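Case study 2.
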Amino acid sequence: MNESAQSGRQIFINGELTIYTASEWRDKLVNEMTGNDDIQLELAEVSEIDSAGLQLLLAVQRQAAGEGRQLQFGQCSSVVRALLDFAQLMQSLNVNMQNLGQGEQP
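Prediction:
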């Protein structure tokens, strides 16, 4: 996880975001989300995601909204995009679709 001083906090999630790693990522995200900065989650390096990972992303978004903060999902790996597209959450989760390649628009 990294932080960008220019446009709020930028958090990178990499590897698996599954039932086996969700609690670990939850603890890390809780620590990273302290403060009042807007947040951008970068998911380009997520290699696997399941419903537990999706629940965690939804919880993070709900927490940020409850705190009055902007949360944007930056670049997403193909597995993340596939799950968000399947769940029809690309637009409601504020996914940055400008970084998607041609033909990848949902």
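Confidence is low (pLDDT under 50) at residues 2-6.
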